[in-house]
Amino acid sequence: MNELKLSILDLLKEDARLSAATIATMLGAAEEEVSAAIAEMERDNVIVKYATVVNWSKVDDEKVTALIEVNCTPERGRGFENIAERVYLYPEVKSVYLMSGAFDLLVEIEGKNLKEVASFVSNKLSTIESVISTKTFFILKKYKQDGIIFEEIEDDHRLLVSP
To answer: Is-annotated flag, keyword Transcription (predicted)?
Structure first.
């Protein structure tokens, strides 16, 4: 991948709303060249989606997010591929990662409430024949996501104390 495309990706990762014209100006490139590079990266699935980071704690419709460690038995010839595919096809699953260390897969899911998440783990995830065990962690509060800090940093209004 050439340097122009990498620079475009860096800029779009920070702000997906940037236009090709703005990116071209920022990089000192021709707008047509930037537009063509973006179109090519979209076509090749390098750019998969343009997304918005939402601070759900500021919205009344708060969601429950859980991270689930999954231990499973890999399948001969396919490893963890089939298991990961079965898991990521569920609509409540937001991310699935193959991990090194104490567990095999890390699954991020989102539900309306704790009961919905628990139901997913007990009725869908743990019933997959290759799954040996799961460990669920509920996210209580997000401080930072995708490089975005959610909390406003307050100034320290205490009086200085000097000896």
So the answer is: yes
Q: How do 131-138 and 64-72 pair as beta strands?
A: antiparallel
CA neighbor of 90 nearest in space, from 68, 75, 59: 68
| Residue pLDDT, tens place only, 6-36 | 999 999 988 999 999 999 999 999 999 999 9
For residue 106, give the amino acid letter.
L
Confidence band of 108 (pLDDT split at 50, 70, 90): very high
Nearest 10 degrees: Cα torsion 93, 95, 100, 101: -50
Domains of the chain in sequence order:
3-43 (1.10.10), 56-142 (3.30.70.920)
Strand partners, 104: none
Measured between alpha carbons, how far is 132 from 129 in angstroms, rounded to an integer? 8
* Class of residue 91 by CB neighbours under 10 A (exposed 0-12, middle 13-18, buried 19+): exposed
